[in-house]
Amino acid sequence: MSEKTELETETEQSPDEAAEMLRNIADEIASGEDITVEGNNAAITVPGTVEKLGSELEVEHEIKGKYDQVELELEFEWTIIPDDEEE
Fold first, then answer.
1. Could you give the 3-state DSSP secondary structure of residue 15?
2. pTM higher than 0.70, yes or no?
3. pLDDT exceeds cutoff 70 at 87
4. Which position among 26, 32, 35, 66 has the lowest Cβ density within 10 Å, counted as fewest Cβ atoms?
5. Cα-Cα-Cα-Cα dihedral sign, residues 35, 39, 44, 46
6. What percent of the chain has pLDDT over 70?
7. Stretch 55-59: mean pLDDT, rounded?
8. Which residue spans within the chain are E strands per DSSP?
9. Distances, alpha carbon 43 to alpha carbons 6, 18, 40, 58, 81, in Å
């Protein structure tokens, strides 16, 4: 049986606030502990113990008249293998 939980949030932050959020997530990934992400009055916690993870980085730069629009998406993906299935 497949079960899916999602949390998607959009906020406006200062560069310092955005960098702090990324640092917090990076610290949780590096620690090997569970990772908790909060947003839109909700939170999701996922197991963070992982050998390797895949990542995808996408950057778009669009010039709209006299203004530039920049979008950066960073995605991490990993599979959690239960302890009883590991050798």
1. helix
2. yes
3. no
4. 66
5. negative
6. 93
7. 94
8. 35-39, 42-46, 54-64, 67-77
9. 10, 18, 8, 25, 23
